[in-house]
Automatic annotation (TrEMBL):
Domain MYND-type: 48-86
PROSITE patterns named among the record's database cross-references: SET, ZF_MYND_2
GO biological process, one term: methylation
Keywords assigned: Metal-binding, Methyltransferase, S-adenosyl-L-methionine, Transferase, Zinc, Zinc-finger
Enzyme class of the recorded protein, top EC level: transferase
Domain of life, per lineage: Eukaryota
Annotated PANTHER family: HISTONE-LYSINE N-METHYLTRANSFERASE SMYD, HISTONE-LYSINE N-METHYLTRANSFERASE SMYD3
InterPro entries tied to this protein: H3K4_H4K5_MeTrfase (IPR050869), SET_dom (IPR001214), SET_dom_sf (IPR046341), TPR-like_helical_dom_sf (IPR011990), Znf_MYND (IPR002893)
UniProt domain SET: residue ranges: 3-238
Swiss-Prot/TrEMBL catalytic activity: L-lysyl(4)-[histone H3] + 3 S-adenosyl-L-methionine = N(6),N(6),N(6)-trimethyl-L-lysyl(4)-[histone H3] + 3 S-adenosyl-L-homocysteine + 3 H(+)
Protein name per its UniProtKB record: [histone H3]-lysine(4) N-trimethyltransferase
Amino acid sequence: MALKVERFACPGKGNGLRATHSVQAGEVLYSAEPLACCVSNKCAKDVCHSCFSRHESLLRCSQCKVARYCNITCQKKAWSDHKRECQSLRSVHPRVPTDSVRLAARIVFRLLAPSQLSPELYSLEELDSHLNDMAEEKREGLSKLSSMLQLYLQHNNPDLTQDTPTLHPLSLLAKVACNCFTISDGELQEIGVGLYPSMSLLNHDCRPNCVMLFQGTTLHLRSVRDIHPTEELTISYIGVLSPTRERRAQLLDQYHFICQCQLCSTTCLDPLMLGGEEEAWTPLKEAIPRLEMLQTNGNWEELLQVCNSLLAPGGGAVPGGNVYRLRVTDLALDACVNLAQWDSALHYGAETLEPYRQYYPAPHPAHAIQLMRVAKLQHFLGHLKDAEQTLRLAYDIMRITHGNEHALTSELIRKLEECRAEMGRD
Ligand SMILES: [Zn+2]
Ligand SMILES: [Zn+2]
Ligand SMILES: [Zn+2]
C-alpha cells in the first residue's frame, strides 16, 4: 500500500512529515510497530509485557521475576525480545533500571538482530539527541542513567555501545528522552514507552491536526480534521491544558524548542485559562503538585477533602474555565469515583465539560474520554436522557480519534444502545 505520508524539509523546524494527498478527518495515516518498547515500571505488575493488555493476574517470568505475561503464548512470543533483557535484569537484581534505561537497552538488543528491523522514514542515526543544547543539570542526570545502562548491558555485550556512535550510551539515552512516545491504553492511561523512529518526524503544535492512538503496542496516527495535500502533519507532545507560558517552558525543557504555533503566538486562550483574580487561583495552582501526589498514592479521602475545600463556594471566585480550577475539579472527580461517591462525582464531572469543549475545538481523545466518564455516571444514576446526549457527543469525537473498530468505541456504542433501550421502557 502506498504511504499516505512523506518526509520533507520543513522551514525553520528541520524535518517534518506531510500528507501526500488530501486527507479527511478520522483517516489512519500511518500505523507502526515500535523499534523497541517496554512496559513502564509503575504498571509492570498489571500489564502483559508482550501484548500490553491489562490483567488482574499475570504469569511471572521465573528467571528475572520482573516480566509478566497473560499466558504461555504471550511469553513465548516475547522471548526473542526478552531473552537478553532477562539476563540483564537478573544481573542487576533486585534493582530494576528506569524505564528509559530499559528502553535504551531494548533498542541495543534489537539492533543486534538487524534482519528483524522494518524500514523507516527516519533512522535512529538521524534522531536528534539535543545533547549540545541541554542544560548542564539535565546532562548530569543523563550521565548517571548512562552509567546504569552500561552496568545493565555488561553481561550481554560490553563493547557494543562503545563501538557504534549511534549507540553511545549517553547519546542513545538523550535520543530516547526526546523521541520516545508514551504508550497509553484506550483511556489514555500510560502503560509503557516505545520508540517509533518515523513518527519522530512529526513536529509539535498545541492545536495539532493529528493524534496518536495505540492498540497494544501498535501506533496509529489519525487525522482529526481535513488536511490539504502537502500540509504539514502535527501532533501535540504535551498536554495542552496549560497557559502559553507553561506550555512553552515545558516544550523548551523537554524538547528544546520554543513553540511558535498559532495558539502560542496569539496567546488567545490565556484570558480563559487564567480567568479570575490571580490571588484567587494561586492557591489552586500551588496545591496541584501535592494533590497529584495524593492521587498517585491513592490517598482518596484526603485528596477529596482538600479539593472540596479548595473548590468550596465562597473561595469560588475562580471561573470554571480557569485551568487550575479545572485540574483540581478533575482530581476531585477521580477521588469521588474511587470513593464511590457517585453524586459528587457527577457534579464535578459535569462542571468540567464546558471547559473541555472550549479547549478542544477539534476532536481530541481526552475530550471523548471525559465525556464518556461523565456519561457513565449519568447512566448509573438514572439520568438517561443526559447520558444519551453525552454519549452521542463522545461518539462524534471518538469515531474520528479512535475509529469505529476500536474496542472503546464498541463499548461506547453498546452503552448508547443500552441507554436507548432503557429510555424506551419508561
Ligand atoms: Zn499478553
Ligand atoms: Zn525474564
Ligand atoms: Zn504552541
